[in-house]
Amino acid sequence: MNQKTDGKMTVKTRSTIAKKIEKDAPEAQYLAVNPDEITRLQEESKKIPYKMEIVWRNVALFAALHFGAAIGLYQFFFEAKWQTVIFTFLLYVFGGFGITAGAHRLWSHKSYKATTPMRIFLMLLNNIALQNDVIEWARDHRCHHKWTDTDADPHNTTRGFFFAHMGWLLVRKHPQVKEQGAKLDMSDLESDPVLAFQRRHYFPLVILSCFVLPTIIPVYFWGETAFIAFYTAATFRYCFTLHATWCINSAAHYFGWKPYDHSVSPVENVFTTIAAVGEGGHNFHHTFPQDYRTSEYSLKYNWTRVLIDVAATLGLVYDRKTVADEVISRQISKHGSEEHREKSIM
To answer: Which of 59, 14, 28, 308 is nearest to 142 (CA)?
Structure first.
């Protein structure tokens, strides 16, 4: 399915397109980019008496996590059995799919549709990643797209690299995040029984999926010690997954090139594409957020696209949305940097 989008994608044009989509399909309202609203939010933010408040509980939890991850990193290279190393890597990849193919491309952007078995599968993978339930994750992500780089963006890059990477999880949310996020219509996800089940049972699901099973499986099946299994396959792997995801909020807004739209902060970054199993084509993604591929990168980089395409072949996925090649080329020629487009990795 090709999304018939005009290639002359200035911010104002994207706003017009998004408004038409919103009118035709209210569930697509999170794609809307309204420059007047962005300006209004920026002006209103200056008037809000906001003082950053550190959440020390979160600081303590993340400090403990990183201490444990350091132990797991050492064990991963010097003490863990080869089966545990492979198991840790596979958990990282499939947990990542729960974010990239599930929370992000399917539920946040509705860039494709999935059958109930596939939605259940992605929900279970999402629990391995432990990054809040899908509904909450998608709400924050829709805020990020709708109000990028304003104080209504949960990981606003104008507040610095560290804030965009993980600092936003260590402080109280800005009042605009709460105010604007409450305005988003999340009924399309709240009405999904798979996501309702996840939200209702989230704590036991993530404890079991992220920590208990990754510890028990290596011990039971190939005799790994519980100490090594816990710190390697659970703690280190979880921490690494978090940083891979966070790099999309930080590095993919700072280090790279802008072949599709030079007026926005998101960039193309091959490192984050690899680390986040296919999500680093961020300039493409913010220019064409409805495209299920999220980039033009080839299959050797975009593992999430491989998963979605295989699922489509099996009849588990359908209505994959893409932007036509001629529209992409027109966008590059008018608003991007043609010389920075790396055709060799597409």
So the answer is: 28
The C-alpha atoms of residue 6 and residue 327 are separated, in whole angstroms, by 7
Instruction: Tell me if 43 is assigned to some domain.
Output: no
The two three-digit tokens of residue 277, written as one number: 């199993």
Tokens encoding 78: 């010097």
Residues 6+ apart with CB under 8 A from 226: 215, 219
- Hey, is 186 helix, strand or coil? coil
8-state DSSP, 210 = I
> Would you tell me the crossing angle of helices 134-146 and 193-200 to the nearest 10 degrees?
110
Looking up tokens 């399909």, which residue turns up? Answer: 25
* Separation of alpha carbons 29 and 49, rounded Å: 29
Tokens describing residue 30: 């999170």
286-323: per-residue pLDDT in tens?
999 999 999 888 777 899 999 999 999 999 999 999 99
Q: Is 256 part of a structural domain of the chain?
A: yes
pLDDT at 9 over 90: no
Residue 161 lies in a domain: yes
- Could you tell me if 43 and 31 are in contact, meaning their C-beta atoms sit under 8 angstroms apart? no
Block residue for tokens 């005009």: 6
User: 2 lies in a domain?
Assistant: no
In the block, which residue shows the tokens 């545990």?
84
Q: Which domain holds residue 291?
A: 9-36+56-345
Q: Show Cβ contacts of residue 274 under 8 Å, excluding neighbours closer than 6 positions.
A: 280, 301
